[in-house]
Amino acid sequence: MKPFPRAEISRSALQHNMERLREIAPQSHVMAVVKANGYGHGLLNVANCLEMADGFGLARLEEALMLRMGGVKAKLLLLEGVFRLDDLHKLVEHDIETVVHHRSQLDMLEQVSLSAPVTVWMKIDSGMHRLGFCPEEFREMYARLVVCPNVAKPVHLMTHFACADEPNNPMTQAQLEVFTGLTRGLPGHRTLANSAGTLYWKDTQADWVRAGIALYGISPVMGDLGSDHGLQPAMDLVSRLISVREHKAGEPVGYGSYWQARQDTRLGIVAIGYGDGYPRNAPEGTPVWINGRLVPIVGRVSMDMLSVDLGWNARDQVGDDAVLWGRDLPVEVVAEHIGTIAYELVTKLTPRVAVCLD
Ligand SMILES: *Cc1c(COP(=O)(O)O)cnc(C)c1O
């Protein structure tokens, strides 16, 4: 018997999405962003399926070390850089590249004594105002990096977009202009685009695109789907019915008893809940795919289970599969019902969900 709940990860979908991104950004290298456990799809699974990626992007050193321990030889980049001086030695030891976005990281590079220089991507704050050197300090900080013996030459250049997921927002063009103006004539590679930049703002693709969510077959843009861009969902989140019961009009279900059936029906109890990472705030009507159709969640999601209204003439049986999202029910649609984004749903799955590669 297959474990449940489980996240079934499709190798062929991941590989298809990688090929699709190469078609969309034909002049660029593709960095596959696999932070946060490969957006919940399993860090090593994803890296092993995507051997054709030109490199992998991570948020934390621990994630990069897990890839190296797992035998991954590809280029690795820490998108937030290092937070402790000692970590710089680990970068050299394990051949990991780093972003430098703050003076404190530059100070560490100047203080440490390394056995070999590290490859650095200097991050510019072109308008998002989260991480990166602001335009006024860019020249001075760039000059310090260039003369630092612990920094490999050339220094590469990056920025990140605040609003690339809004195809009509002028912010992205403005950020592109700030970045282009500051970096004109400098050597090194450039990277600006996340998935939304890659899909919607061709001018931002540059030497490297950094694609996360699109790799997993999910659209970064509210109101459209991965399939609108020729992408395939890489995760099916599957559990099963552990009870099917007759339910009378007027009877409530679940904690708080706040939902009551308007007519006689059958309820299905699905073995998944907030203890698995399925959000407790999923409202009544959030869809679940069971036996070829969508049925609505009713009552409150509890820790280990949730209830669905199967309908009075339902033929579903205990043991039948219930799909919370995936090929037949895009996670973008579920996210919209819940009032969040698909990124959060896939990354929040807990270790109780078995991650299975097909
Ligand atoms: C997470 C991240 C990405 C990937 O973003 P998506 O929207 O998932 O494509 C790209 N760049 C940086 C710096 C990131 O932190």
CA-based gyration radius: 23 Å
Q: Main sheet, how many strands, which sense, barrel?
A: 8 strands, mixed
Our measurement of the CA-to-CA distance between the termini, rounded to an integer number of angstroms, reads 15 Å
Uncertain ranges: none
Structural class: alpha/beta
Q: How would you classify the quaternary structure?
A: single chain
Helical coverage, percent range: 25-40%
Order of helices and strands: EHEHHEHEHEHEHEHEHEEEEEEEEEHHE
Structural shape: elongated
Mean pLDDT metric: 97
> Number of DSSP helices?
11
Ligand names? pyridoxal-5'-phosphate
Strand content: 15-25%
Number of strands: 18
Describe the protein in words.
With 358 residues, the protein is α/β, with parallel strands linked by helices. It has helices at 11-24, 35-39, 43-49, 61-69, 85-94, 103-111, 135-147, 171-183, 195-200, 331-338, 342-347, and strands at residues 6-9, 29-33, 55-58, 76-78, 97-100, 120-123, 156-158, 190-191, 208-211, 235-247, 252-253, 259-260, 265-270, 287-290, 293-298, 306-309, 321-325, 354-357. The protein is built from 11 helices and 18 strands. Strands 1, 10, 13, 14, 15, 16, 17 and 18 form an 8-stranded mixed β-sheet that branches. Bound molecules: pyridoxal-5'-phosphate. Pyridoxal-5'-phosphate (PLP) is lined by residues 33, 35, 79, 160, 194-196, 210-214, 220.
